[in-house]
Amino acid sequence: MPSCPKCNNLVDTEAIRCPHCDNPLKAYGHPGVDLYQATGETFLCDRCLYHEDDSCTFPKRPYAKTCTLFCDRENSPTKDPNAFVYQQSGWVRLKTWCFRNRAILLLLIIVVVSVAIALN
Fold first, then answer.
1. In the prediction, which pLDDT does 78 show?
2. What residue intervals traverse the membrane (predicted)?
């Protein structure tokens, strides 16, 4: 059972607000959107993986005290040595690229055929 970051009392995992101090625990009043909150005078950005790799677009960065996309760099899945990294073979990557870019390939084939006909 998690605790409220403001009053440190135990709260239900589905609670939208803390029943003790009325602190919001879920973003936008939706039980599926977690609202991460900094404790004390610290900021979430100091420990966030997105801030570290400069991919964060949150407007309150680097002084955010609340965030919905916070990813703690100490507990990130990229630091897990047992994390499975999916590697595709070269042939599968080529097929995937051709499928994604089939319009460009079709135009290229039309241009090549047109040039071949024009030269004959």
1. 62
2. 103-119
Residues in the chain: 120
* Residue 64 main-chain phi, psi, to 5 deg: -75, 130
Boundaries of domain holding 102: 90-119
Q: Among the residues of 34-101, which ranges form H helices? A: 49-52, 90-100
Q: Residue 28: which region, alpha, beta or left (left: phi > 0; alpha: psi -120 to 50)?
A: left
What domain count does the chain have?
A: 1
Residue 77 is classified by DSSP as G
pLDDT at 14: 86
Residues in the chain, pLDDT under 70: 76-86
CB 59 within 8 A of CB 66: no
Residue 65 lies in a domain: no
Q: Return the DSSP state at 106.
A: H
Q: How far apart are CA 15 and CA 119, in angstroms?
A: 73
